[in-house]
Amino acid sequence: MKTQHVVILGAGYAGQIAASRLAQKGAGIRITVVDASPVFVERIRLHQVMAGQRVARRPMRALLPEKAAFTLGRVTGWDVASRRLAVGATAVSYDRLVYALGSAVDTASVPGVAEHAHALDGLASSDALAAALAAVPAGGRVLVVGGGFTGIEAVAEVAESRPDLTVELAAADAPGAALAPAGAEHLARVFARLGVRIHTGARVRALDAGAARLADGRTLPFDVCVWAAGFVAPRLAADAGLPVNARGQLVVDETLRAPGHPEILAAGDAACVSDAGVPIRMACATAMPMGVFAAEEVARERTRKAPRPFPFAYVIRCISLGRRDGLVQRVGPDDRPLPKVWTGRRAALIKELVCRSTVFALRAERLGLAFYRWPSPPVQAVGSTELSGYARAE
Questions:
Q1: Residues 43, 126: contact at Cβ < 8 Å?
Q2: Angle, vertex CA 372, rays to CA 371 and CA 375, nearest 5
Q3: Which of 136, 283, 325, 367 has the smallest set of CB atoms within 10 Å of its CB?
Q4: pLDDT at 379
Q5: Confidence bin at 393 (pLDDT 50/70/90)
Q6: Quick one: average pLDDT of 164-187?
Q7: For the range 278-282, what are the long-range contacts, defined as Cβ-Cβ under 8 Å and sequence gap of 24 or more?
Q8: Taking the alpha carbons of 338, 339, 342, 344 in that order, is the dihedral positive or negative?
Q9: pLDDT grade, residue 389 (50/70/90)?
């Protein structure tokens, strides 16, 4: 059987685990991983980097399998028809491609964000934010924009580590709107304890140097602004002429393949499953299952097995609320919140164990152990109209 060259674009959670799982499939598969960073980025810990905490920085090669070649660089061109990529001045061809470039904070949709705000996008931006926060004198103001889990974790981390600052959160909707009542109530108590000021219905129209201008005419001054109001995927797929959604994610079918291009599979934040009844959220918890599944599908193709839908079910949502508090929300298979929540130090411990388990899984897979598993939808739900959206796959 002819050796197949599989190129994996992106070495985040999805790309890393896809490479390791593919490397376990024996001879006949050549793997090349392409990423613009020489260091693996634990995005689920960037709020800790922002707060000046020590977080391990692992070279890509420390987590990638020995069988995989690593190319450091950014893809500047993609000819889908000829299956060729331009990585700087180097041309790279492929037989199969796993598109796992992840996402970035959307700093382009609102005027002034790119110039006047910091984003938790990677190690460099998080280090810059840590330096900016350290330079704010006592009594200064920090504004976090965005009421999703990224914004919640960021504002709690800042408020806990710098109680001498005025810390505010601006969001269009109430933070914790996706939580059960008990979760939202705990979140409110934590914010009150940390002294975080909450501004709801706050849609930022533009950022100026030192102030956010809201759509309702209000102005929120700041010394440092942390922008966490949404994520977008890279433009590479759109520029290559492939179908994307409004956030730039490559639209794929339930088998994670691009329509008309079965040689292209997508995993992680850069992927959008078109027939999902419930969209797969951008998260480490979805990226790693998608990465493993994409690798397994590439291997199955070599034995001429038919494509399968991606099986996935949600179980929990975890939120850090500083180093000594947290919130774990039990959810149904379709990600709808259930009444059960865990809070306080117990939830903080669960969250920390979840974060550690991701690196543990990557290391185990690198050593050739098919360690990683994830929940599948209930048997009776597969194929149903209501739950077909997650019969395939933070």
A1: no
A2: 135
A3: 367
A4: 55
A5: very low
A6: 95
A7: 278/334, 278/335, 278/389, 278/390, 279/389, 280/312, 280/390, 280/393, 281/335, 281/394, 282/103, 282/231, 282/394
A8: positive
A9: very low
Helix (H) / strand (E) element for 318: namely: strand 316-320
One-letter amino acid of 358: T
Instruction: Tell me the residue type at 326.
Output: G
pLDDT value at residue 277: 53
CA 80 to chain centre: 25
Topology agreement, domain 4-103+233-312+373-390 and domain 105-231: yes
Cβ pair 358, 44 in contact under 8 A: yes
> What is the domain partition of the chain in residue ranges?
4-103+233-312+373-390, 105-231
What is the average per-residue pLDDT within 156-171?
Answer: 98
Strand partners, 75: 87
Strand partners, 200: 171
CATH architecture of residue range(s) 4-103+233-312+373-390: 3-Layer(bba) Sandwich (3.50)
Closest listed residue to residue 40, CA positions, set 26, 58, 23, 19: 58
Token pair recorded at residue 105: 């904070």
* CATH T-level assignment (fold) for domain 105-231: FAD/NAD(P)-binding domain (3.50.50)
User: Among 8-12, 26-30, 99-103, 181-185, where is mean pLDDT lowest?
Assistant: 26-30
Name the pairing type of β-strands 261-266 and 231-232. unpaired
Phi, psi of 181 (to 5 degrees): -50, -40
Residue with tokens 């005027």: 111
DSSP assignment string, 350-375: HHHHHHHHHHHHHHHHHTT-------
Percent of the chain with pLDDT over 70: 95
Smallest Cα–Cα separation from 51: which of 146, 144, 158?
158
pLDDT, residue 27, reads 82
